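Hey, I'm writing a tutorial for new members on how sequence and structure tokens pair up, and I'd like a real worked example in the thread rather than a made-up one. If someone can provide the structure for the chain below, I'll link this post from the tutorial.
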Amino acid sequence: MEASTTAYGQNFEESITLFGEKGTIKIGGKNAIYFEYLEMESMDQDEAQHEIDQIKKDPWGKLGHQCIIEDMIDAVKFDRTPEITGREARKSLELVLAFYESAEKNAPISLIKEKEYASN
């Protein structure tokens, strides 16, 4: 993964493009809040366009991690697995930590595709 930033006098267009094994997304706009492109294995073109349109209609949506917290509360209430498990969340954390490590070392960092975590 590569990233770059540019700043000049004022906040111009920002964009973040993520290319993954199961899809691609480009988030852009002055505050990087709009889906400009969305393609996922699990979505047909109509579903992707619906998501893009929903974001355009209400780009701020729910603040912060509110959706994740609400899902976790429901998971506890209804004794079900949350949409984002601790194991999945940890993968995101490892990616962000790898960004920092790469910047600190000024070198690419390899991520192990799957790790086994202790279940306790």
